[in-house]
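Task 17 of the worksheet. Students: predict the tertiary structure of the chain below and write it out as structure tokens. Keep your answer in the requested format; marks are given for formatting as well as content.
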Amino acid sequence: MALQLIAAGISAIGQVAAGQAEKEAADLDAFQIRTDKVMNKTQALQMSRARREEYDSATAANIGAFYAAGRDVDSDRSVQAFLKKQKEVAGEDIGRIAMQESMQGIKAELAAMAERRRGRNALTASLFSAAGTMAEGIHRYSSTKT
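Model answer:
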């Protein structure tokens, strides 16, 4: 008869341990998601910097080509319009990179929150399950004792 209580206790301990392990796994997954978020932000900064450097290099090359062609960069309106448009395009590209990184960051943060919540829910469910197992074990013990 006492074996029923011992078995219920072991089962309850196993359920709690499984819930705790699930919570720890979810916490690790959430940490990985947040780490990926930081890496994505770093990558976006690198892409923005590379786009700025590309713009600077292309602008210098274009200005050199205009001068070589005998066009006055400071007074030629079509050259000014071209350079202005190139600057706008580069700015839009950098803005899109920043917007995409921001959206990915929000998505990652929500995923990490959901993962942490999943872990907490698994732990809570295991505690209730363990309590039910113990209550059932005590009930069976009491029923067979009398």
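Marker's comment: The chain has one domain: 2-145. DSSP finds two helices and no strands in the chain.
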